[in-house]
Design a protein that fits this description.
With 220 residues, this protein is mainly alpha-helical. It has twelve helices and no strands. The longest helix is centred in the first third of the chain and has 26 residues.
Length: 220
């Protein structure tokens, strides 16, 4: 079934608005050993019960909030990879990529299936991101690089953002990001400054992460 512009917007308009929030909270959770008991006054069990709510905004909010609990909710996120709502699959795949570690490695087969066969390009993008975070770079990273040229702005912006989140492992995407930036600088005819902004942010993240990696002291 071909993907149309409207479903992409339904997924990405909400997701791009909250992507920074998702990442900021997931990375802060990942750095702490203690488990979070509540997010916005609700427990993980309460959010899990809302994952199949008939109200789309309720279940999307539940999935985003569930991701903030960290590794303890990885099993629920894994189940959400097969949800009928593609936006739910997107959130779950991205969240597992953010979590990394065993939570991500135990999801590899499902993510690989989504990356290759999901009918929604956006879900394949999120699965590609997660696989790259797991070190499975070849096909997934190429998919993300190609998505930088996607005709829908939201999709291309999401790809640039997620490439930046991968860090030094995504250095192969640097040339494509530079090309995207050059084509979308402010004042460039036919360019899109939103996409140009995401490209430059991704390049800064790649460069900062690479610099930090090379400057870190070597352990004997």
């Amino acid at each position: 079934m071909p993907e149309t512009r409207s479903p992409i917007r339904l997924i990405l308009v909400g997701l791009l608005a909250c992507t920074g929030m998702i990442h900021a909270n997931l990375f802060s959770v990942a750095g702490h050993a203690q488990e979070i008991a509540h997010v916005a006054g609700k427990t993980a069990a309460e959010y899990t019960a809302l994952l199949n709510s008939p109200q789309r905004e309720v279940r999307l909010r539940a999935a985003r909030s569930l991701a903030r609990f960290g590794d303890q909710t990885a099993p629920q996120l894994r189940k959400t990879l097969s949800h009928s709502d593609p936006a739910m699959r997107y959130i779950a795949a991205e969240a597992l990529g953010d979590l990394g570690g065993d939570s991500l490695l135990e999801s590899i087969d499902q993510l690989a299936e989504l990356q290759q066969n999901d009918e929604m390009h956006s879900v394949r993008l999120a699965a590609s991101y997660a696989l790259c975070r797991a070190g499975k770079l070849d096909r997934p990273l190429q998919f993300m690089i190609k998505t930088l040229d996607y005709p829908e702005r939201g999709m291309a912006c999401a790809s640039a953002f997620l490439i930046g989140q991968i860090g030094p492992a995504a250095i192969e995407a640097k040339a494509a990001l530079e090309k995207t930036l050059d084509a979308n600088r402010p004042g460039t005819k036919g360019g899109d400054y939103h996409l140009g902004g995401e490209a430059i942010n991704a390049l800064r993240k790649l460069e900062a992460a690479t610099t930090a990696q090379t400057q870190s002291p070597q352990k004997n």
